[in-house]
Structure formats: C-alpha cells, structure tokens
C-alpha cells in the first residue's frame, strides 16, 4: 500500500511498484483521486487521519506500507492546519493501524533531512544519529520530527516489522515541483544578505529508486538520502541565469509572506533559515547499509532541473556562451559578418 498517491512522487512510486513483476498487488491511498495514471495499481479513496485506514489494510491483507503522504508545503495541503493534520495525525493513525494488522511486515516512511534543522552551529555533515542544534518550533521541520518519533515508537511496539525511515534532501529534477524549484524559477531570486549556504539535492529519480530499494528489500533503520557533493546557493543561482537580490535577514520573513500571497513560492520560516544556513548530511549509511548509490550528484540533479523545467534567465550559461561566441566572431579578423 502506498499513501499520498494523488501527489507526484506518491503516484510515480505506485507506478514504479506495479511495474515490478515481483510485486503482486499495489493499492494507492489518498483523500482525492490521483491526476496521473497509476497503471495497474488500485486506488482506494481513504483518509489516513481516520482509523478506517486500518480496515483498508486488513481487508487487502497488506504486507508492506510505503508512507509517502508527508507534505512539505502548506499551500498544496490547503493551509498549515490541514498540512499538520495530514503529516502528524495521519502518521499517528497509520502506524497504529499497522500495529493492529498481523499481515504488515514492513513500513517504509518518506521523511526529510529538515529534521536536523538549519543553524549557524550545525556540523558540516549530519549523520543519522546526530541531534539538531536547535529544536524545530514550527512548520514542516517540526512535523518531520514528530513523524520520525511516531515511527520510532511503532518500531519499538512491533519489533517483528521491518521499519525503514528515509530522510531525503530537497528533491530536484525535471518534473517534480517543490518550494525550492519555485524559488529557483523566480525572475529575480532573493537571498539573505551576508549568507551563502551549502545545499544538497536528491534527484527525483534517485529518490524514487531509494524508496523502491527500501520497500522491496530488508533494510531496517534510518538513512540520509542525498546526491553526492554540495553546492552553494550562489553557485545554484548563477546556473539559473537569474539575477539575485540580497536582503537583510530581518526582511526575509516579510518577503516569504509576500511570495506566498502572490502564489510565486511557498516559503515558511524554516525554509528561510535553510536559505541562510543551509544543511549537509552524511550518506555513508545509505551507501554501505542500504546499498544505494544515486546516479545523479547534487550538481547533476540541479542541472537536470534547469533543463527539464526550462529555467534559463538572461544571464544563463547558454546565453552567455552564445554572446561570447558572437563576440569572438565579430572581433576575429577576417570573420564574415552578417
């Protein structure tokens, strides 16, 4: 059973599983029907916040649950209150339903590296066993911490169930839409004056592949999932070709509110902290214990996003290269001029 199939990543993951010949049956669950075709996967309209999800699991004799219905932005959820209900109450009800179902043998949860937060006191790379330097007080980061807590509690109560928690870096790629893809698509990209954070991405295809590996195999534990390497925010912005607009740190929250109201980007307080302090995670456990090696590094994932979503500003690399080539033609003696 896959939760959150009405959203892009959940729907794509259901497609990926149903195409696997070793997977006999896939049931997709969400409160609204998916816009994308799930193939041979079955869709059941159900709310994971309601205890009725337990009946869905019992009737279908579900052996594996892939929890993809953890939302990162309030706008897509219909507001912060609804987002918190889906993330926290939904994740509280789902393990409770799994606990009562003897058929469940595995629970795989899509979590986030936002559980580590972003602060000036952070280590260069967070390992899975390290605690954040400051407790998350609101938003998606706080939800992610609570989600991980409920999952750990379930693992203690059902030690016979294989529980895998995958903490993903920010998704990036040619198709996925996130707060950061909206941010990097802005015609003028605001930054926090005096800060140039290190950032990591996971390519959307690699993220789905990591979920698939954890779901079809036996890999208990918590894993950071990110592409190799890091890049700074300024490097990423230069690749977009869009100009940046440095703002004093006190002004950043007001800009975030303005972008949300205009529907241009969906930025919460913890996301603005991320744009100031960044975050890096260690992926040794992903490679050695999960046995997963992403095909795309952080820079490659970002370049694929730029190509796939056609983000190319006036200062983009292609435009600059074209101008340089034209200047060489013009300034080279004997060159033909049209």
List the keywords.
single chain; 338 residues; alpha/beta; 7-stranded parallel sheet; two-stranded parallel ribbon; 13 strands; 42% helix; 15% strand; globular
> Quaternary arrangement of the chains shown?
single chain
N-end to C-end Cα span: 63 Å
Helical element count?
A: 13
Largest sheet: 7 strands, parallel
Evaluate the radius of gyration.
21 Å
Number of strands: 13
Sheet/helix structural class: alpha/beta
Question: Would you write up a description of this structure?
Answer:
With 338 residues, this protein is α/β, with parallel strands linked by helices. It is built from 13 helices and 13 strands. α1 crosses α7 (204-216), α2 (53-60) packs across α4 and α4 packs parallel to α5 (139-157). It is globular. The N and C termini lie far apart (63 Å). The model has no long low-confidence stretch (mean pLDDT 88).
Layout: helices, strands, pairs:
Layout: E1 2-3, H1 8-18, E2 27-30, E3 42-45, H2 53-60, E4 64-67, H3 74-77, H4 80-100, E5 106-112, H5 139-157, E6 162-168, E7 170-172, H6 179-184, E8 189-192, E9 198-199, E10 201-203, H7 204-216, E11 221-225, E12 231-232, H8 233-240, E13 244-247, H9 252-262, H10 269-277, H11 284-288, H12 298-308, H13 317-331
Parallel strand pairs: 1-2, 1-4, 2-3, 4-5, 5-6, 6-11, 7-10, 8-13
Antiparallel strand pairs: 9-12
Helix pairs in contact: 1-7, 2-4, 4-5
């Amino acid at each position: 059973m896959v939760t959150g199939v009405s959203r892009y990543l959940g729907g794509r993951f259901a497609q990926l599983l149903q195409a696997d010949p070793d997977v006999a049956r896939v049931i997709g669950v969400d409160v609204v029907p998916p816009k994308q075709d799930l193939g041979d996967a079955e869709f059941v309209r159900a709310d994971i916040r309601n205890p009725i999800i337990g009946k869905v699991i019992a009737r279908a004799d579900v052996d594996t649950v892939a929890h993809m219905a953890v939302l990162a932005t309030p706008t897509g959820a219909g507001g912060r209150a609804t987002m918190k209900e889906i993330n926290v109450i939904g994740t509280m009800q789902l393990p409770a339903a799994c606990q009562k179902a003897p058929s469940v043998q595995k629970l795989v949860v899509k979590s986030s590296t936002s559980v580590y937060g972003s602060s000036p006191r952070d280590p260069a790379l967070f390992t899975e066993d390290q605690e954040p330097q400051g407790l998350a007080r609101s938003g998606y980061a706080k939800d992610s911490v609570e989600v991980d807590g409920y999952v750990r509690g379930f693992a203690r109560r059902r030690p016979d169930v294989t529980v895998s928690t995958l903490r993903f870096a920010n998704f990036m790629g040619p198709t996925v839409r996130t707060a950061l893809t909206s941010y990097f698509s802005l015609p003028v990209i605001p930054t926090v004056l005096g800060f140039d954070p290190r950032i990591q991405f996971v390519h959307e295809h690699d993220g789905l592949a990591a979920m698939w590996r954890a779901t079809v195999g036996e890999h208990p534990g918590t894993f950071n999932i990110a592409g190799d390497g890091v890049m700074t925010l300024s490097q990423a912005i230069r690749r977009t070709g869009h100009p940046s607009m440095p703002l004093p740190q006190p002004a950043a929250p007001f800009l975030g509110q303005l972008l949300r109201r205009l529907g241009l980007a969906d930025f919460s307080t913890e996301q603005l902290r991320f744009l100031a302090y960044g975050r890096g995670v260690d992926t040794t456990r992903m490679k050695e214990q999960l046995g997963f090696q992403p095909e795309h590094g952080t820079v490659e994932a970002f370049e694929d996003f730029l190509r796939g979503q056609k983000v190319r500003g006036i200062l983009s690399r292609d435009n600059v290269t074209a101008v340089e080539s034209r200047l060489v033609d013009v300034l080279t003696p004997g060159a033909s001029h049209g």
